[in-house]
Amino acid sequence: MLNLLVVPAVGAPRVAPDAGFGGVDAELMVRFDDLASLLDTPQGRSLARLAEGLGVFGHTRGAWDDLSAALKLGPDEARRRLLGGRAVLIADGLGDAASRWAWVMEVSPADAALLPRRLKAAPRGGLDGHAVYAVEDGRFRVVVTQRPVASVAIAPAGSDDMLGAAASLGSAWTRRARERGAGDAVLLYRPGLGSWLFGTLRPGAGGWTMSFSATPELLGTAGWSSPTISRRWFDSVGDDTALSFIGPVHGAAGGMVWRLVPLDPPSDEVFASARVETGSVSINALGGGRLDCTVGFLASDREAALREGDAYACGLLESFTGTKGYRDSTPLCSGSYPVAARLQSVELAEGNPRRSLYGSRLSFVWGIRPHAGGGVWWSLRVLSDDVPDATAALLRLRTPIGGDGAGRASMMGLIRPARLLGLLAEADAPGGGDTFSAFRSIDEIRWWVGPGASGVSRGEVRVRMRGAVAEDP
Fold first, then answer.
1. Which range (3-12, 151-160, 254-263, 391-400) has the least confidence?
2. Within 13 Å and on the Cβ side, how many CA atoms surround 419?
3. Which residues are bridge partners to 382 per DSSP?
4. Mean pLDDT over the full length of the chain
5. How many helices and strands in the chain, by DSSP H and E?
6. pLDDT of residue 19
7. Strands, E, within 47-178: which ranges?
8. What secondary structure, in 3-state letters, does 353-417 show?
9. Mutual orientation of helices 61-70 and 109-118 as an angle, nearest 10°?
10. In this structure, what is the dihedral angle of CA atoms 112, 117, 122, 125, given to the nearest 10 degrees?
11. Hey, which of 157-171, 239-253, 270-284, 382-396 has the most confident mean pLDDT?
């Protein structure tokens, strides 16, 4: 299993740590102590297959082949000799067509001496006092340094600033015993001023372990009044669930999840008087004639939650059926307080585009349950089944709030990529095509985020990958 564990130092300030990157100013920096050994693990091979499927660094294959050929090495030996020591990736402008990146790798003095002679190219100018060589017909540029530690830096043409930073970083390395089999990675991601994530990544049973700390601004939880969520919430997620999330309704993570849900998200005005900040989403079935989707909100005002929840649910009924008037109908209520449930079953008419996706009949079940911390938990479930007992169906939806101590979190999520991609394909939804098919190599991703010291958030992510043997390295 791939475990990602985020634990900031107690009392750490909200300033991104340098983490041994020598003050390099870049959006992303990743340092490996022995990437070659990491890639030789079952987890590393699974990650490499994922990266290959996504086309990550696929355009560097020619440059890698040129470096391997210059050293007269086969692929495995080249990986061991070029990636068996310290290696750092730096990148800037991620997500842009003009993104820039560079690698710097610790090598043996003998290999560093061989490369300039065997690249069969004269230096193509200088960069910060270093000779620059061209490989693959000038598409990539290489800097080789010998002191105090032998290193090779490589970057595509147009990334001279990254190449210079990588070469300077390699030149600042001091001698040490080369550590074999460490297999850890350290990363620092800084997408904007005052926003950062710092973490370490290592192989775990069946996947990976990563620990990180991050600013609330990056995670979308800044200014959010977080409730206590029990991490036992994961135990309530069924084996057939493709996606489940609980966290800030209007945060970045919540907004991303809502784009996958076939229900219109509530507007900023919905639940406003109930002072809603925390919500949840779960998808069990989506398309292929089936739908089973649940949303929920923690509201501080019960009466407002009932009133605005009814308006939201009736709006969804009108959207799904194309029929107006639900908002003005007789109250859809059964059960009694403090638990109240509403039930409405509807037929989707011929010609309704949702009929072929979700079936001809849908049941909407919604209502409230009390919350021990005050307020109520409002839930709505939409499924392609008749529901004879709305109150019982509502009570089966476990309230995900509660817990403290080591089990405390403020945002949690679970996604099973292979199942979700299959559902999205059946529903003809964004992400359901071949674009993300590489993610089918991941069985499951779990994550939680909680408050840390000095305003820095912490959390944990676990990733279980297919083909990664359940063993600890």
1. 3-12
2. 17
3. 293, 364
4. 75
5. 12, 23
6. 65
7. 87-92, 100-106, 126-127, 130-135, 140-145, 151-156
8. HHHHHHCCEEEEEEEEEECCCCCEEEEEEEECCCCCCHHHHHHCCCCCECCCHHHEECEEEEECH
9. 100
10. 10
11. 157-171
Residues 24, 85 contacting (CB under 8 angstroms): no
Question: In sequence order, what are the beta bridge partners of 462?
Answer: 3, 446
Q: What is the mean pLDDT of residues 438-457?
A: 82
Average pLDDT over residues 44-48: 78
Task: Give residue-wise pLDDT tens across range 284-338.
Answer: 888 888 888 888 888 888 888 888 888 888 888 888 988 876 655 544 544 444 5
C-alpha to C-alpha distance for 54 and 58, rounded to whole angstroms: 9
Residue 1 and residue 443: Cα distance in Å, rounded?
9
Is residue 372 within 8 A of residue 291, CB to CB? The reply is no
Are 435 and 429 in contact by the 8 Å Cβ rule? The answer is no
Intervals of CATH 3.40.1000 along the chain = 222-415
β-pair partners for 11: none
**Phi, psi for 185 (deg, rounded to 5):** -130, 145
Residues 6+ apart with CB under 8 A from 187: 28, 29, 30, 31, 197, 198, 199, 200, 201, 212
Task: Tell me how many degrees the CA angle 184-221-421 measures, rounded to the nearest 5.
Answer: 65
CA distance 449 to 39: 28
How far is 44 from 201, CA to CA, in rounded Å?
11
The CATH fold of domain 222-415 = Protein Transport Mog1p; Chain A (3.40.1000)
Could you read off the pLDDT of 56-107 as tens digits, one per residue?
A: 565 566 667 777 777 777 878 888 888 888 899 898 887 777 788 899 999 8
More confident site: 387 or 108: 108
Cα gap 453→47, rounded to integer Å: 32
Distances (CA, A) of 27 to 89, 172, 187, 220, 455: 11, 20, 11, 18, 22
Query: What contacts 433, CB < 8 A, 6 or more positions away?
Result: 425
Contact 289, 273 (CB under 8 A): no
Q: Count Cβ atoms within 10 A of the Cβ of residue 353 and give its class: 0-12 exposed, 13-18 middle, 19 or more buried.
A: exposed
Q: What are phi and psi of 336, to 5 degrees?
A: -140, 160
The backbone torsions φ and ψ at residue 356, rounded to the nearest 5 degrees and listed phi first, read -70, -25
